[in-house]
Each structure stands twice: as structure tokens, then as C-alpha cells.
Design goal:
Elements lengths: L2 H27 L2 H8 L2 H12 L6 H19 L11 H30 L7 H25 L10 H4 L1
């Protein structure tokens, strides 16, 4: 792997780590049903960024699919009653909502960015090279997440119930 491709894969890996953090924050603040509906908007972000970054052509079928899937998620979202947890403030709920939309948008950006990286690689894309790129991306996403957990002291949390520890 050429150094330029390595750096691109590392940057995408860090973006993936940031996306994972934002997504986890949103999931912690919102009910899973709401998160699932919001994450469905990722399809629209992916389509838009694919059009902008890699010049993906839209067909009537792809436009129809994006429209119908997005509208279906929207209709489901409109039919829900208030789902904010009782112990959560309005500010936390809105922040979780915004973070989840941000996670959908960022991941919708990452997917076409990977394809753009393959196009701009200036070397033959083989199965082995794709695996190397994926390994670098995963390594940097994991490193980002691990550093975040160390800063937040997440490794000191015990997973055993308090009654077992006493």
C-alpha cells in the first residue's frame, strides 16, 4: 500500500471512530425505535454524497427507492407518541437526536469517500489491497475509540453486579 493510500485509509478510519462515538451518544439518549428511524435517513445522505463525490448517476429506480424508503421511515416516525425517557431532559433528547442525524450524515459521507479513495488510489485495486485498506480503517477506528475510552475512564467500570462483588 502506498503511503498516500495509507493516510487516506487512516483518515477514513478516524472518521469512522468519530461516527461510532456520535452514534453511541445518540443511542444512549434516544429509544432504539427512534434511532432506527433516524438512521434510515443515512440512505439519503449516502445518495447525495455519492452524487457529489464520485459522480454516481441517479436512475428513476434509485430515486424512487431512496424516496420511498425515506418516506416510509418518516411516516413511521410521525405515528409515534412522545418517546422521550422520563428521566431525560428535553436538551439531552434534542442533543441525542442531533447527534444521531449527524452520525447518519457522517456515515453517508464515509461510504462514498471509501469509493473515492479506491478511484484515486493510483494503483491496481486487488482483493488483498482492499483487505489492507479495511484493516487500516478498522485499526484507526479502534484506536480512536480506545483512546476515547481511556480518557473517559471506561475501562474502570465493572460489568459484574454489585451484589457479586461484595
Amino acid at each position: 500500500m502506498k503511503p498516500r493510500l495509507f493516510i487516506a485509509a487512516a483518515v477514513i478510519g478516524i472518521l469512522t471512530g468519530v461516527d461510532d462515538y456520535i452514534y453511541a451518544y445518540g443511542v444512549a439518549r434516544l429509544p432504539v425505535s427512534t434511532v432506527a428511524l433516524i438512521i434510515a435517513s443515512q440512505l439519503v445522505f449516502t445518495a447525495v454524497f455519492a452524487f457529489v463525490l464520485v459522480k454516481q448517476k441517479f436512475t428513476s429506480y434509485s430515486i424512487n427507492a431512496v424516496f420511498l424508503l425515506t418516506m416510509g421511515a418518516g411516516v413511521l416516525g410521525l405515528n409515534t407518541s412522545s418517546d422521550r425517557p422520563k428521566n431525560e431532559s428535553y436538551r439531552e433528547y434534542v442533543l441525542g437526536f442531533v447527534m444521531t442525524v449527524g452520525a447518519a450524515a457522517l456515515y453517508g459521507f464515509i461510504l462514498p469517500l471509501v469509493e473515492l479513495t479506491y478511484k484515486k488510489a493510483k494503483q491496481e485495486i486487488s482483493y488483498g489491497l482492499v483487505l489492507e485498506i479495511q484493516a487500516v480503517m478498522c485499526l484507526f477506528a479502534t484506536a480512536f475509540s480506545t483512546i476515547g475510552m481511556l480518557v473517559n475512564n471506561d475501562f474502570k467500570v465493572s460489568f459484574l453486579p454489585r451484589s457479586i462483588l461484595v
